[in-house]
Amino acid sequence: MAAVPTSFREQICEELTCSICLELFTRPKVLPCQHTFCQDCLQDHAGRGGAFQCPNCRQQVRLPPQGVAGLPDNHLVTSLSERLQNQDTISGETREQPQSGNRCSFHPTEKLKLYCKPCQAPLCVDCVEEGHDGHPNIISLTKATQEKKSTVQALINEGRDILETYCSFIRGLREKEKNLNEQKEQRDNSIIQAFNQMVQKLTERKDFLLSDSQQNYSENLEKIQTERDNVLADVNELSAACQLAEQELQLGCVEFLSQQTALTEVVGKYRETAAPTPVQTQPAVFQPTDTPVPLLGHVTVQSLPSAPIPVAPASSNGAAGGIGQDKGQVKPQCQSVTFGEYGSESGQFKSPLGATVSDEGEIFVADQGNQRIQVFTLQGTFLRQFPTIVSDEHQMEPGDVARDGEGNLWVVGWTESADFAVQYNKQGRVLRKFDLQNTEWYRGVAVDTRRNHILITQITGGKDNTHGEVLVFRPDGSLVRSVEGKWGSFLWRRQEMKKPRYITVDGGGNILVSDNGNHCIHVCNEDGQFLFQFGGYGSGEGQLKGPRGICTDRAGNIIVADYRNNRIEMFDKKGRFLKHIATDMMKPLAVAMGTQGQLLVTDDKKQTCPICRQQARPPPQGVEGLPDNHLVTSLCERLQNQATLSGETREQSQSGNRCSFHPSEKLKLYCKPCQVPLCVDCLEEGHDGHPNIISLAKATQENKSTIQALINEGRDILESYCSVIRGLRENERGLNEQKEQRDNTINQTYKEMVQKLTERKDLLLSNSQQNHSENLEKIQTERDRVLADVNELSAACDRAEQELQQGLVKFLSQQTALTEVVGKYREKAAPTPVQTQPAVFQPTDTPVPVLGHVTVQSLASAPIPAAIASTNGAAGGIGQHHGNQRQMKLQSQSVTFGGDGSESGQFKSPRGVTVSDEEEIFVADCRNKRIQVFTLQGTFVRQFPTVVSDEHQMEPGDVALDGEGNLWVVGDTESADVAVQYNKQGRMLRKFDLQNTGIYRGVAVDTRRNHILITQITGDKNNTHGEVLAFRPDGSLLRAVEGKWWDFLLRRQGMKWPQYITVGREGNILVSDYGNHYIHVCNEDGQFLFQFGGKGSGEGQLNDPCGICTDRAGNIIVADIGNKRVEMFDKTGKFLKHIATDMGKPRAVAMGTQGQLVVTDDKKHTVSIFYN
């Protein structure tokens, strides 16, 4: 820089000189009269009073509550003074002429030229005459400066040396603190690993016991079922013979005469057969062992003797506790499986509109866009498909599907020219069809199986003037106009239905219709008489938006697909809201209930079918191993036989008994030797000469009593056999109850043991934490004490050195103060190292508790070996097995909390998020203008408003933690953008203004440099400019950091729309560019390193990236808002995996202390925590 002309420099110096101290301004403050003075000068001038007069204009000045420090700073004067002091030319001139501008504060017209050694004060000539006349050793100021300079410099050097020893001590404390943290992390990991290994062993033991219990149950059940099958075969044979003879006897058919021999043989067979004896079963019992809980190990302090740690006490009430369960019970989550995706292959969908589930557990899905019905198991496995054929030339697009009483399917849909209702069998063969009015609106279908009526919804009219109705048809397509005098052609028009979409019939015969136009559910009885309606437009509990699919469960509860609220709702049979079944759907359309309470939902947006299922444990043989329902089998066979016999006998009557050999002749005779009825021609052709040929009437009379006696005897034998079957069924029921009780006891004992282990683990972790806290407190106390000494010594040396370099006469008066401070620390002993006592974890080699034994009551129990521990020492999770058993894939556990609202724990646009070292989550709840705080389990802790001033609150856009644990929040008010620092309780510490851009910002803190990094977007929508600004905590913008930062960082990298920012473990700065769909990576000085991403939805591509953070391994996690997912990349930007793919609008991400990932969802107004 060119030298400033001397005359101009002197003018600037004069303007920048305080009129009280006659020195360049230091910390200049502005009075209301606009005169500027040094803060220290004003403090001396004002004294302790709250008011004083301006030294220049004598105007009265009233100080603010904070005193002189509360007066506004003169930033322009500060900047000019600093620049003037830093100029080499001016500094050189100042060193050459130290006294040229030094004027006496008591006599401003006189310059300081003398120095009084006894008073150690610079003087002017008038000062000597007025107060120092006669003092010895008054010398020139130049000579005094020369004499004192070397002495002061030596004191400064000595102070710096002492300072270095103190700073070295502080560095040692930091290293010790780092080692303590590493030791605690390693110790806690060892405790958790030992806990996991013990739980794994317990789990293997529990599975072994349950397997023994299942094997015993299967063996006993097989005995019962084998015996029951044998007895049932006898019962069926005897029952059929008696029933056939009895029917023919009652109808008076001649065939009963020929049944006597067969009936005599059957009854005689069972008369001579011994009655079946009861089956001897051997049900097992579970005998829990009274085993103490394993200690896992001990946490001991290395340098002190270890006190014994008591065993965690058992639960006093005997209740079992699960892993991770505290005093409150954990609410069970609904398990689900989702299958399908968009496409035309088998198992893929294009708008799955309707669904139903058969009694055999088959799911039928109306795949509208693909013009077909697809069939799946209740586990989501594809079975088959068939096209929705209407005729040889046409296929229809199916809109809904329902089952009738015979298990066939009724499908409603449309072709280009007409609407249809078509009946298919389960294999897809068309059975019948009829035409419907061509309305160009979707329809729903249901079947009233008790009346065999087909109920179809219909919407007519234009978009703004629709009329809704339900039409009732017979299977042949004829419209039911009157059912018990109450049904009409157009059902419910009087209820003002607008857009009836789906329909169902509940267990009581009531008809339920979802009205998409009125956002409610209509309920009528089976005759169409209106009962009530519920719902109404809205997103609150019990409200609906465009309801679609509807069904009922076995308890009569009503399940509704709340289409536009993206959720599934449950109401009781009276329409009262019960709960949300699912709240993360996209466009739920149809719902259907499975045979065991499974809920099937089709999703038109996701093109998937999720099935919510109750937990069921299949036997080792799979589905084939499930018990047969022999009672149902027997009843079905009897009904079929009954129908066959009834049909045959109805076709024949005694009056029409004709000979099968001579149809024109009637049977009138009976041959006793041959036991057959005869006509006259039969007698002549084959029975002439046989003895005992009697009339048919006489034969009937003679044999009736004999056959009736045989029937009665057969019935008595049959009753004894049926009694045996009833006993077998009771025995089977007892076996089921015993197995259930036995398995529950095993699981209960397992849970109690795991709970004791959990309590022991928590005790060990608590001891570990207590030891860590005590040691850390020692270090931090000593560091705070030493830092106070460092600050005092450093301030004294810095002030003396600064004044010495600037050549100001003030340094002459610093010798005494500096001598005292340096002397104080010269004589003071150096700080001694802090003695910490870090604990260690010592695992105990404890065998796994056996839980108990499964033994057979009536037989001697063979010893059951303890579960084998893992040989590789690795900790296994619950559900992992050895051998050839399939190993379960561990899924990432997660918890989601929040929801749209203003109550505590609810959000309106949660944006930024950060996690403290104390495991507290801080969420920037934008629209609610507050920061909410939660635990890492999602429990609400507290909240505080984002106050900017007494009159204003800001909408927080992002939040970050600095090195001292305070929060930096960026946001905007109606008139300005601001950056505010709060403590963790919400007290505002400082703030500074930002350019008002009206666009969201991100914030991060470089804790190593204590720099606040804030993103900024300027320009209009079509021409934006992105930058990152680096500030000091006082709000001053960094113009040069090691000569590499710019005022507008990274503009050369072509950033367009920087959103969020973070600082990696190595100090690199990562910025998400929402506009360019990239992540930019720079080093700590702002030098561009690389970028990754690019617009798209493939692996490694991004669509409007937002939140960004790094994990402990340096991997980069990005909230990919446009693709509704969270992605992981390595530290070089190489794609690793999708962490979550079912988000709404993932906005911000943050890492917890133990690797937990926290994600805010701006669309769902929720926060999710992903563990592992």
From TrEMBL:
This is RING-type E3 ubiquitin transferase. It comes from Branchiostoma floridae (Florida lancelet). The gene is LOC118404419. It catalyses: S-ubiquitinyl-[E2 ubiquitin-conjugating enzyme]-L-cysteine + [acceptor protein]-L-lysine = [E2 ubiquitin-conjugating enzyme]-L-cysteine + N(6)-ubiquitinyl-[acceptor protein]-L-lysine. InterPro entries: 6-blade_b-propeller_TolB-like, NHL_repeat, TRIM-NHL_E3_ligases, Znf-RING_euk, Znf_B-box, Znf_RING, Znf_RING/FYVE/PHD, Znf_RING_CS. Gene3D superfamilies: Classic Zinc Finger (3.30.160.60), TolB, C-terminal domain (2.120.10.30), Zinc/RING finger domain, C3HC4 (zinc finger) (3.30.40.10). Residues 18-58 form the RING-type domain. NHL repeats lie at residues 339-379, 531-574, 897-937, 1089-1132. SMART domains: BBOX, RING. It holds the Pfam family zf-B_box. Its EC number is 2.3.2.27. PANTHER family: E3 UBIQUITIN-PROTEIN LIGASE NHLRC1-RELATED, SMP-30_GLUCONOLACTONASE_LRE-LIKE REGION DOMAIN-CONTAINING PROTEIN. Signal peptide: none annotated. Residues 99-135, 654-690 form the B box-type domain. It is an enzyme of class 2 (transferase). GO terms for biological process: proteasome-mediated ubiquitin-dependent protein catabolic process; protein polyubiquitination. It comes from the Eukaryota. GO terms for molecular function: ubiquitin protein ligase activity; zinc ion binding. Belongs to the TRIM/RBCC family. Keywords: Coiled coil, Metal-binding, Phosphoprotein, Repeat, Zinc, Zinc-finger. Residues 170-248, 728-810 form a coiled coil.
